[in-house]
Amino acid sequence: MSPSLPQQITAAIASVVGAGPVCLHEPQFRGNEWAYLKECLDSTFVSSVGKFVDRFEADLAAYTGAKHAVAVVNGTAALHISLMLAGVQPGDEVLVPALTFVATANAVRYCGATPHFVDSETKSLGMDAVALRAHLEEATERRGGLCINRTSGRVVRALVPMHTFGHPADVESLLALARDFGLALVEDAAEALGSTYHGRYAGTLGLMGTLSFNGNKTITTGGGGAILTDDPVLAKRAKHLTTTAKLPHRWAFEHDEVGYNYRMPNINAALGCAQLERLPEFLDAKRRLHGAYQAAFESLSGASLLGEPAGCRSNFWLQAILLDESAADQRDAVLAATNDAGLMTRPIWTLMHRLTPFRDCPRAELPVAESLERRVINIPSSTYPA
Amino acid sequence: MSPSLPQQITAAIASVVGAGPVCLHEPQFRGNEWAYLKECLDSTFVSSVGKFVDRFEADLAAYTGAKHAVAVVNGTAALHISLMLAGVQPGDEVLVPALTFVATANAVRYCGATPHFVDSETKSLGMDAVALRAHLEEATERRGGLCINRTSGRVVRALVPMHTFGHPADVESLLALARDFGLALVEDAAEALGSTYHGRYAGTLGLMGTLSFNGNKTITTGGGGAILTDDPVLAKRAKHLTTTAKLPHRWAFEHDEVGYNYRMPNINAALGCAQLERLPEFLDAKRRLHGAYQAAFESLSGASLLGEPAGCRSNFWLQAILLDESAADQRDAVLAATNDAGLMTRPIWTLMHRLTPFRDCPRAELPVAESLERRVINIPSSTYPA
Q: Does domain B33-277 have CATH number 3.40.640.10?
């Protein structure tokens, strides 16, 4: 009897990463992490101010080519503030992929706005600009320079493409659409540090972009995130809003708006500085891993490895396989077999419109997202082989 | 010519802490901070899960006597979630001292509610229960079990006493008032870890209590906070809401409400575990420092050192002096003289109702808070002499 698809996939993964237990994504601390943490502790500046925060922001800007980077407490906070600064107001709608991590939709809610879910494309797993344009032409109208949802009557203010697993969404087409419909584009590049789209870094393509440095990301600060922008006014506002909106003064406490305690502590930034130094190495290792998986999955039928979109370089944060439509009913069997073998895998996220808090939100037709939801599986993705 | 009040105060401070530069509050890392951080890094679990988070929560509960502790990203986040769980809804009002750090009022806003500012008492610098009762009797009425602001028509849902500089507010009287008016009491104990009120720890006296471990606090995690409660249902809800409201599952992503990314990273908790071990030592040092300041300020006329309220043990997080009414006009001269001498001092916070974002909020008469605002100065408060 020939091995079943779950058995074949388990074997293919094990042929690359070895026998389990292997987790989905493990960080690696073999550079200056230790030295910088010690330096931070010895300085006693572990908290809301310190040189590592300044350095991490400068290093992020230098690496990505963004003119400004503002380090914050996590990617969700980065999105929240970016949406506010993009002009999202209570009662607005924001276009968000149905296929995303829940933070994208939650951040819209924190602004008092409603996510409006749209479809993805198979190539990048990101927002489908062609389908979105057709949807907006049908579902919205322009009135007084604003894009209005015909059904809800609400202003559609912004769109938030998310670069799934580090594969850049088709930002150029989405930027054209944003221009045509009068929308602000905020990139959710939480998963895409180091990915490029036509040579430019993810997170630097829209009005603002956001990054995450959670423990499972390509580089980690423990918990952390950043806002990227080329606009000095928005950068200054982002710093202000994320640091309790306190006005500078030698001693007085004046806060000129409702601000947030979203700053990244210096000790987390110390870790980030060391991790960022090693990013090029990590990206090489992740690309090598992708090559090894390509070889392992090449001859397997029923599933294929997700590659990078044309014109892009993915950071290959999370490797993913796509089951054929005919094999979609075996997804849970694949997840069970691989996890039982100690090889951690997981499905892509449950689509946002299925979650209780977002069940009643407006949405486009989602045929591709619904298909991907049944077929995408993430496989172990750490920076091995060393 | 005899020395001026600013000169005398500068000399009194210097006689205790030495010549400057001396900052207001510097953390101390001479215990297991180093060892735990290294252990955390070596484990690779630096982020959203890890044994230090569990241990820090258990240690906090054991220390304070709270049945449950939930570690979060900072004290502001702890307040936000506690207010939500105390039932604060959009459109409600929440009683908050006008004399507090801006986070107390901001957290109310994050719930879509309006802070309603009330007066403080001179002894503790905390919410004045007597004045508040008189205010509520005049300004509110009970309707259907709810406390309604007669002017605004809004439900007054909760009150948030804050333990200023670690001096416990008169929680017993405030709890009686909360019962009488049908309000939930959430303690803002951000500054009061280790302080006790009639033998019980600050943060464990109301429905929920919140702590902060910012870099300037008695113990620090870089950035961090915690929610304390005896209620297992609230504790479970707090953990759920602060960890994106994800339902437990081997691999699936189901989130059953709009959640928050408020968890404390494991690396910050590692620091917290080491710091908490040293808390008794820190409290001793701070009490010794208070004694030294008492001696230095005893014979000085025009200003007095703030002591602990009757029946309480303060953690003496920040030492403070109170200028006599007749010397209030010299406050800025004192601030300038001390800071110029390298001895960091600062005034108490600008009252909340003076800040642009809260200018139009309802408020009681605030004679004591207004007087304290002009007269309180914090003086260097680190855990020296060693």
A: yes
Select from A145, A190, A138, A149 the least CA-distant residue to A168. Answer: A190
Q: Is B65 exposed, middle or buried (0-12, 13-18, 19+ CB in 10 A)?
A: middle
Strands A146-149 and A346-347: what pairing?
A: unpaired
A256 CB near a chain B CB, below 8 Å?
yes
DSSP characters over A48-63: SS-HHHHHHHHHHHHH
pLDDT at B136 over 90: yes
Q: DSSP H helical segments within chain A, as ranges?
A: 5-17, 33-43, 51-64, 75-85, 102-110, 129-139, 171-181, 232-242, 266-277, 279-297, 331-340, 367-375
Which of B26, B40, B267, B373 best tests the A interface by mutation, with the highest count of A CBs <10 A? Answer: B267
- The minimum CA-CA distance between B112 and chain A, rounded to whole Å, is 9
- Highest CATH level, class, for A5-23+279-379: alpha beta
Crossing angle of the two packed helices B75-85 and B232-242, in degrees rounded to 10: 120
Torsion on CA atoms B199, B205, B208, B211, rounded to nearest 10: -40
DSSP conformational letter for A328? G
B5-23+279-379 and B33-277 in the same fold: no
- Does A357 contact B255 at a Cβ distance shorter than 8 Å? yes
pLDDT, one tens digit per residue, over A298-313 is 999 999 999 999 999 9
Question: Is B263 in contact with A28 (Cβ distance < 8 A)?
Answer: no
Stated pTM of the model: 0.96
Structure tokens at B338: 């001390």
Say how many residues make up chain A: 386
For chain A, state the CA radius of gyration. Answer: 21
Q: What confidence score (pLDDT) does residue B215 get?
A: 87
Please tell me the distance from the alpha carbon of residue B280 to that of residue B242, in angstroms, as a whole number.
Answer: 29
What residue type is assigned to position B113 of the chain? A
Query: What is the predicted pLDDT for the residue at A43?
Result: 86
In chain B, residues with a C-beta closer than 8 Å to the C-beta of A266 are 215, 222
Looking at the DSSP bridge assignments, the partners of residue A140 are A149
The pair of structure tokens assigned to B63 is: 């220390």
Does the CB of B267 have a partner CB in chain A at under 8 Å?
yes
Do the strands B225-229 and B68-72 form a parallel or antiparallel pair, or are they unpaired? antiparallel
pLDDT tens, position by position, B291-335: 999 999 999 999 999 999 999 999 999 999 999 999 999 999 999
Residue A316 has pLDDT above 90, yes or no: yes
| Domain edges within chain A | 5-23+279-379, 33-277
Q: Which of A258, A263, A346, A361 to mutate to test the interface with B (most CBs of B within 10 A)?
A: A258
Q: Which amino acid is at B61?
A: A
pLDDT tens figures, A179-235: 999 999 999 999 999 999 999 999 999 999 999 999 889 999 999 999 999 999 999
Closest residue by Cα to residue A94 from A351, A348, A358, A355: A358
Average pLDDT, integer, range A249-272: 94
Nearest CA to A190 out of A230, A157, A156, A223 is that of: A223
Contact between A182 and A98 (Cβ < 8 Å): no
Exposed (0-12), middle (13-18) or buried (19+): which is A16, by Cβ within 10 Å? buried
